[in-house]
Amino acid sequence: MSGNGRYLDSKGRPVVVVTGMGLVTSLGRGRDDNWKALTAGMSGIHRISRFPVDGLRTTIGGTIDFVSVEPFCAPALSERLAEMAMEEAIEQAAIGSAGDFPGPLFLAVAPVEMEWPQREELARSVPHDGPYDYHVLLEAAHRGRPDLHRRFLFGGVAETLADRFGTKGSPISLSTACASGATAIQLAVEAIRRGEADAAVSVGTDGSIQAEALIRFSLLSALSTQNDPPEAAAKPFSKNRDGFVMAEGAGALVLESLAHARARGARILGVVEGAGECADSFHRTRSNPDGHTIVGCITAALDDAGVTPADIDYINAHGTGTPENDKMECLGVQTVFADRAKDVLISSNKSMIGHTLSAAGAVEAVFTLMTIAEGRVPPTINYTIPDPAIPLDVVPNVARDARVRRAMSNSFGFGGQNVCLVFAGEPA
Questions:
Q1: Mean pLDDT, residues 162-187 taken together
Q2: CA distance linking residue 365 with residue 182, whole number of Å
Q3: Residue positions annotated with a catalytic role
Q4: Which domains does the chain have, with CATH numbers?
Q5: Closest Cα partner for 27 from 290, 302, 378?
Q6: Which of 315, 265, 308, 269 is closest to 427 using CA atoms?
């Protein structure tokens, strides 16, 4: 890497830039279609048709029904969505040759677990004496159904993608709950800063809306039950919010050192200036009510970027629509941004695409970079009843033109796993 100072940040590390992006959400396939729908305030939430929902408290979601995998299982759909997003990102970056990406893969993917239809299929096809616990099923799959064994290994999705795109080194599979997509970006940034790679691809993917997952989240009282109309269910920051809406999607970003990107004449889409993470280990699902880890995460991202709250024009909120999460995010923003909190623009993509879980941090990173590039802030839709406890400018219901030089994207996951990213426009 070049020692030229213009390729280094204020801390003497290689500047990390984005040269390719890909998206798939319930709004559609590709960056352009997603951006057009998002800024128009459209919703991708609808009644679930993939499996029977009669009698369930929650009957809606952001399922991606225009992508089919047969027979359905979450790892298979997650893999296909990731493949689609990676194809678009790598094509835009125009990096490497087909099947020969010149760097590692960092993949955020949902924890993989054999689903009940496959368990039943395996129990029928591979006889076994004694109880069928999960480990027995995997061992039986290894012996008699290698197709199922590969599908339900945590690293299976990443291995397949690494083979397909020719990424270098061991592909990294990771899961940090709802912060996973942002963690994948952070790990790539750190690898490039350390000089371990000149380029990397970070992907967040999640295709896990199946009956068991929906019921589990419902039992946690985490999901919205305002099913009618579906598109009005996700209400981040609104006083009548009652939970998040499960959704599917994938986001991919090609990251490079600025020196590497400039040397090959790449078009630079933005800069990843900083990443901060904090874990509070307070509860399996809840954030610590004093908010110190959210405050610490935001502060760490700003410090890593070498900027102050005054430098942030927009925050792409985690904004799930759960009563507690939105309140805690507001507390964190108010604490760090102080008097500026009421002036900085903040909005939630999840009001339209739902919560894409393991993919969220990557999907929202792409939207954040597009916000900077387009000078247009996506709205928070379904904001009908302001919450006096959240006195923020949430860009209610209608997109807003604004100059956004630098933005933050927040990802706050179950178990207190938190990551914040700071993005800026193309460097001088």
A1: 96
A2: 8
A3: 178, 318, 355
A4: 16-112+153-423 (3.40.47.10)
A5: 378
A6: 269
Determine the Cα–Cα distance for residues 251 and 356; give it in Å rounded to an integer: 10
Q: pLDDT, tens digit, for every residue of 9-31?
A: 999 999 999 999 999 999 999 99
55/300 Cα distance (integer angstroms): 45
Q: What mean pLDDT value characterizes the chain?
A: 92
**Residues 6 or more apart whose Cβ sits within 8 Å of residue 163:** none
Rg (CA), the chain: 21
List C-alpha distances in Å: 90 to 12, 99, 143, 177, 409: 28, 10, 37, 26, 22
Is the confidence at residue 206, as pLDDT, over 80?
Answer: yes
Quick one: angle between helices 360-374 and 180-193, nearest 10?
Answer: 70
Q: So what's the pLDDT on residue 145?
A: 74
Query: Residue 144's closest CA among 128, 130, 160?
Result: 128
Backbone angles phi, psi at 393, to 5 degrees: -85, 95
Residue 2 pLDDT > 50: no
Phi/psi-derived region of residue 221, left when phi > 0, alpha when psi is between -120 and 50, beta in every other case: left
Compute CA distances 172 → 78, 119, 177, 178, 194, whole Å.
15, 27, 16, 17, 17
Amino acid at 305: A
Bridge partners (DSSP) listed for residue 345: 314, 393
179 contact partners, CB below 8 Å, separation of at least 6? 277, 361, 411, 412, 413, 417, 418, 419
328, 372 in Cβ contact below 8 A? no
